[in-house]
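Input set for joint prediction.
Command: fold jointly, output tokens.
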Amino acid sequence: MNAEVATAVETPVVGGDGRGAPAAEKQAALRVSGSSATFQPRIVGFLCNWCSYAGADLAGTSRTPYAATVRVIRVMCSARIDPTFVLKALAEGADGVLICGCHPGDCHYSEGNYKTMRRYPLLKRMLADFGIEEERVRLEWVSASEGQHFADVVDDMTRRIRALGPSKVKIALATDRAER
Amino acid sequence: MGESVATTKKLQIALYWGAGCGGCDVAVLDTNEFILDVAALADIRLWPIAVDAKYRDLEAMDDGELDLALFNGAVRNSENEHIARLLRQKSKLLVAFGSCAHLGGIPGLANLATKEEIYDRAYLHNPSIEPGNTTVPLTQTSVNGYRLELPRFHRRVYKLDDVVDVDYYLPGCPPASDQVKAVLVVIASGQLPPKGSVVGAGDRALCDDCTRTKTEKKVKEFKRPWQIMADPDLCLLEQGILCAGPATRSGCGVRCPTSAIPCRGCYGPLPGVVDQGAKLLSAVASIIDSKDPDEIDTILAGLPDFTGYAYRFGLPASLLQRSVRP
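tokens >
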């Protein structure tokens, strides 16, 4: 819980880097709870450097309010997001994972986002086999000018995951450790 | 056997079979006449498939009395776990022998189902079971005044090092016999590799050892091996046959792809890789020759049960380890 507080305190109230959030939301983030009314999901966001991170940045500099649920990790390209990263985030307790990249045709490296486009549906199928709800992992194309779209995506994803409740992955692994 | 222990310095070894198929024991026997050298070099104190020794003989040993224990099979039930802990206690070295002990193996695929589903399928609702059958195994039962016990079935399958500390990992389903032999010779010589090493395997991808011709990979359609006459010289993946070579450690001698059978990944992930299935997913999806989401979906439909393929030998060693369904 202390780590949670520390993380939230370090997060600017409205940041220019996509981490920004209104103060009320920030306070809500401190009240982590299992009930769906107050449950504040923790979403790991992997954003490509060239489009989506700039889009999230625009949401910040435009002071667009959105849920303080996403922890942004900047990567050079959405194709850099190894499926391992997504699985690792879920195994470590993330309630959701958001992957954002340039719109098809706009990749800074020409083809990177097409690789993401191919990997994502296979990853979704794999997650379903592990009993992980579809809403927890999401791919969105966000350009540098789509700050509002980024904010809407985060809000929508937060609402859907809040309805699901906390991810069961970490709890399941802890239960197993207790068995042996 | 007890006397020879007291009077000679022969290696004291044990081999055990957990949740596995017995193929690993056969791989040891497949070293052919070398097994006679082993018998000359070592006292085999426990080997359920070949030697008459009881668990109580193992329990009676001093701690560290054994020099080497080879454990094959996964940990599925309380008996596997009990013997794993005993062998760890009694042996100076413990080797996870084969895919099941190393990564969970084929039995590990059961982690996609729940304990209750497995019980129901195995004992209650199965085409080979008489309808209305109610005979089921119990951990304790009483027959003619005697109390009988069966091992408890764990919630899920574990790899060996989930339960006990492991010194070395010898991958493969089963490990190649020449590798088994080489590892036994090294251990017998006392020149031990660093603890935690994967032994009897390479440190590159299987593709590096595979002699098939590789060009740029672009796949429009995935096919099952029986659906085409595969080109004998071209990379199987390039022919649309799902092959785990890019995500699998070398060392097997490329036995499967050389025989026109795609790699299933039994030697496990490459050094430094956390999750073999995720790496295979990444590699396989990347080579799909389409930029249209609908067409990509159609092409991916040619990979039924990709999860089962990607984690065929290592689901308990993956990041998610099991289904989260209750």
